[in-house]
């Protein structure tokens, strides 16, 4: 057959690949104003956006229009990538479409990369430009993978839940994750970059050129010794194939700097700038009207892409573009309507919109306002099984702010040293809040031995104790204590139980025979009929009763839910005489299900229940009813509106369900303004008053305004009470979330002050804040192992201030007089000394005729000293009085007249 040479393209019609190269070098930027885009020429200049080329091993630009081969643009020996199960219809001219589907599907498209793409590399950078389908947000997937078809050794990225990059040499159990704190949006282009710096020992993840996570690791791509099946869109697990689009993919055998990563993101953003403009507009268009219900609050930012501005003098937006300070109408006045301007920026392209705002009037201290939530955090890379506290953003139960800088507020040094599944409840008779929680440490805890380890060991032989803290104000918490749900008050075994987990409690007025109330406590345990805990069994929900979660008042009740299969994680809510309980079934495919009863003794196993709904929240786990657990239920203030948070396992955390009719069941709440920190898991929520809410917010301090509070002066001999009274009682603290400052009490450590000795003594005080609670522990030799000896709690986040206690020598106010008289025919000198000072003094009287010493003359007292003359007649003279106290001395004289005695 005869072939004909192809004519070269005209200068104004570059080939697709040349077109892409030109695009990658562009400095792109556009700014939106209300009404449209500014011309590109008017956009300000930005930094260099050329793609780094040093140590570039592979570069694949998916701008073909047909075929199954993608050339490697990098100057290396690595060859082309191959599109598997591809077709010409999957090419868009700027990307390749990945169709998704089962791993075994003969039509699911993916890309095979050359082998050994990072063989021997101690550092690496992998960047990809991708747009994900919504199904990938809740489905296991590998966006790309360096390794083989075995998951044992692998370096990869995933966009499920919150996106992450991972390296492991021991499968899922050995994963080192750098995970973003926010989920990605579907149908929007992102630049995702993974960097492993072998010298620094870190794996870091970037989204759109911004660092979102970084974790220490000793692993590197060189440890991925089998790199025979490197892929885009295909996992070594039997996970579904990736669904979405890919535009570029690059591999470096060095760690790019943060600036270089940003350059790659900016350059690749130019490929789909029109889509970014539409995405930015969609973000602002989706913003709901804003309600401002407190003087300082954080506005929604849609994952950080939105900033706000104001022209209303009654609304001031801080420099962060998110914190607004409002002048609220007076209590009882009408709400005020106004607007704020929201600007969304997606990959350097911006859109704006005026958003309606309602400013609510100020409220009274006793008004219902806000919510508090305790929870724990699931973190396989760290020992995070502690107590965390979040508070709602104003009165909005769909937006939550982590307190104490996102760090724990309480920790356990008892039992297993782990805290999971905490619940927050309240005794209205004693006005006391309680946190109760599972005594279990999964990460770094006792895993058992032999053939029964991990969950087998924990469920059968784990702790039957519960962790308990109490508080009057939700700010300052008591020391930790434990009680055992398997024991009687006298310590006798009440039941043969495996681990007690997921405890909750509901207050029952009039529970006791004397008319007082008590908590009905319920939790999950496996039950055994022998002390060896052997034989087939399942988890039941059990119950007991107590007034204060101590062993002395606790009484074991027995079974509450027994389905014949594993039932766990029950929570209860009541409304208009009906009790609703929500339970997780792990045996019969029901997932989270809800039942109802009108029985007053709802905790008893004989109570009849009606099923309301099953498979609740499965939608958040891609339809997998077993993928959600740990339900938490609460009611919106003063409304027929309830929320049910379900924990999407293993790491996503809470996602919301809602209803306005409990008898109708729950529906998924999808909201762009729902805001909660990642991995917020299995907790409890209580309603607050405005006074409680403000008290919590004012105790959530980020720093002290002034660390040195000056001098406090006390007299020598002062007692501890006097020293404390002289020191400042409060310190000004700078509040988190830009909420200004507040005064908080200080507790001073006076151990180093010796008031018996004048001098200057430095002292340290702890400021009352949420962070001042005991949230860490350490054992002997600094160990944090679960079985470390001498485990002691401390606070790692307490704010401290300093001062100097100045102890002064007492002021000496001594007076002296002298007179002569005859005694038994002999002249004597009588010196009278009075102590008008504030401390005892030692007194010495000297004269020409002799000396007398008074060891101690109390403050406010006087005394006399007599000295016999040596001559008769005795001439006039003087006495010298020396008074001494605390190292200080004063000297004075007194004269006496001549005398002759006969």
TrEMBL record:
PROSITE patterns found in the cross-reference section: TAT
Source organism, top-level taxon: Bacteria
Species classification: Bacteria, Bacillati, Actinomycetota, Actinomycetes, Micrococcales
Originating organism: Microbacterium trichothecenolyticum
Keyword vocabulary terms for this entry: Disulfide bond, Glycosidase, Hydrolase, Signal
Domain LamG-like jellyroll fold: 122-259
Name the record gives this protein: LamG-like jellyroll fold domain-containing protein
InterPro entries (UniProt xref): Big_4, ConA-like_dom_sf, GH43_arabinanases, Glyco_hydro_beta-prop_sf, LamG-like, TAT_signal
TM region positions: none
CDD domains, per database record: GH43_Bt3655-like
Coiled coil segments of this chain: none
One family name in Pfam for this protein: Laminin_G_3
């Amino acid at each position: 057959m005869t072939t004909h040479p192809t004519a070269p393209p005209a200068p104004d019609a570059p080939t697709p690949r040349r077109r892409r190269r030109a695009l990658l070098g562009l400095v792109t930027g556009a700014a939106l104003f209300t009404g449209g885009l500014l011309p590109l020429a008017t956009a300000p200049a930005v930094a260099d956006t050329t793609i780094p080329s040093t140590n570039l091993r592979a570069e694949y630009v998916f701008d073909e229009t047909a075929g199954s081969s993608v050339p490697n643009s990098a100057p290396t020996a690595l060859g082309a990538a191959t599109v598997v199960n591809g077709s010409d219809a999957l090419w868009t001219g700027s990307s390749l479409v990945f169709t998704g589907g089962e791993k075994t599907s003969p039509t699911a498209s993916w890309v095979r990369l050359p082998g050994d793409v990072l063989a021997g590399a101690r550092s690496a950078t992998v960047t990809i430009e991708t747009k994900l389908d919504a199904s990938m947000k809740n489905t296991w997937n590998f966006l790309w993978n360096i390794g083989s078809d075995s998951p044992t050794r692998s370096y990869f990225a995933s966009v499920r839940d919150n996106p992450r990059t991972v390296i492991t040499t021991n499968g899922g159990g050995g994963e080192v994750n750098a995970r973003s704190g926010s989920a990605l949006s579907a149908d929007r282009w992102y630049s995702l970059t993974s960097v492993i710096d072998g010298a620094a020992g870190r794996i870091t993840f970037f989204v759109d050129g911004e660092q979102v996570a970084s974790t220490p690791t000793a692993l590197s791509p060189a440890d991925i010794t089998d790199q025979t099946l490197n892929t885009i869109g295909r996992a070594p697990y039997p996970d579904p194939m990736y669904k979405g689009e890919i535009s570029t993919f690059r591999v470096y055998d060095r760690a790019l700097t943060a600036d270089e990563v940003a350059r790659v993101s900016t350059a690749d953003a130019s490929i789909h700038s029109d889509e970014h403009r539409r995405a930015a507009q969609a973000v602002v268009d989706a913003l709901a009207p804003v309600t401002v219900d407190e003087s300082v609050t954080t506005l929604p930012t849609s994952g950080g892409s939105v900033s706000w501005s104001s022209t209303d003098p009654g609304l001031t937006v801080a420099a962060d573009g998110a914190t607004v300070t409002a002048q609220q109408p007076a209590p009882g006045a009408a709400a005020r309507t106004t607007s704020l301007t929201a600007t969304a920026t997606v990959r350097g392209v911006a859109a704006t919109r005026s958003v309606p705002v309602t400013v609510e009037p100020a409220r009274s201290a006793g008004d219902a306002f806000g919510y508090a939530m305790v929870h724990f955090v699931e973190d396989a890379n760290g020992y995070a099984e502690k107590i965390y506290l979040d508070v709602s953003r104003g009165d909005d139960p769909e937006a939550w702010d982590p307190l104490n800088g996102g760090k724990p507020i309480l920790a356990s040094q008892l039992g297993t040293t782990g805290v999971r599944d905490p619940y927050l409840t309240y005794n209205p008779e004693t006005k006391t809040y309680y946190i109760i929680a599972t005594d279990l440490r999964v990460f770094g805890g006792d895993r058992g031995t032999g053939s029964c380890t991990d969950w087998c060991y924990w469920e059968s032989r784990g702790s039957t104790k519960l962790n308990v803290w109490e508080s009057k104000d939700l700010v300052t918490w008591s020391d930790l204590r434990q009680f055992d749900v398997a024991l009687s008050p006298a310590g006798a075994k009440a039941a043969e139980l495996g681990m007690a987990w997921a405890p909750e409690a509901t207050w029952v007025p009039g529970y006791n025979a004397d008319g007082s109330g008590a908590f009905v406590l319920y939790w999950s345990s496996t039950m055994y009929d022998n002390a060896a805990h052997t034989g087939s069994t399942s988890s039941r929900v059990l119950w007991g009763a107590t007034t204060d979660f101590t062993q002395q008042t606790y009484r074991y009740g027995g079974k509450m839910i027994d389905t014949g299969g594993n039932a766990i994680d029950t929570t209860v809510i009541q409304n208009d005489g009906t009790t609703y309980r929500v339970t997780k079934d792990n045996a019969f495919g029901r997932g989270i299900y809800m039942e109802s009863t009108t029985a007053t003794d709802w905790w008893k196993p004989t109570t009849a229940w009606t099923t309301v709904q099953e498979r609740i929240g499965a939608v958040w786990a891609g339809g997998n009813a077993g993928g959600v657990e740990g339900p938490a239920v609460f009611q919106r203030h003063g409304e027929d509106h309830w929320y049910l948070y379900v924990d999407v396992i293993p790491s996503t955390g809470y996602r919301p369900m809602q209803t306005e009719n409990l008898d109708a069941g729950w529906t998924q709440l999808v909201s762009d303004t729902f805001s909660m920190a990642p991995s917020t898991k299995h907790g409890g929520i209580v309603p607050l008053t405005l006074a409680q809410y403000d008290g919590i917010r004012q105790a959530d301090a980020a720093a002290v305004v002034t660390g040195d509070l000056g001098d406090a002066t006390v007299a020598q001999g002062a007692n501890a009470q006097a020293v404390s009274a002289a020191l400042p009682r409060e310190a000004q603290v700078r509040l988190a979330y830009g909420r200004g400052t507040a005064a908080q009490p200080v507790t001073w450590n006076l151990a180093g002050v010796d008031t018996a000795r004048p001098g200057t003594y430095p002292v340290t005080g702890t400021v009352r804040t949420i962070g001042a609670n005991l949230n860490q522990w350490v054992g002997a030799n600094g160990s944090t192992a679960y079985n470390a000896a001498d485990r002691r709690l401390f606070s790692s986040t307490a704010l401290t201030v300093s001062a100097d206690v100045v102890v002064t020598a007492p002021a000496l106010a001594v007076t002296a007089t002298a007179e002569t008289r005859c005694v038994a025919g002999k002249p004597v000198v009588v010196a009278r000394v009075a102590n008008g000072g504030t401390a005892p003094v030692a007194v010495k009287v000297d004269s020409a005729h002799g000396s007398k010493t008074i060891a101690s003359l109390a403050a406010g007292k006087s005394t006399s000293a007599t000295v016999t003359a040596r001559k008769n007649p005795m001439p006039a003279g003087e006495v010298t009085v020396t008074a001494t106290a605390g190292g200080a001395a004063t000297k004075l004289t007194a004269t006496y007249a001549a005398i002759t005695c006969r």
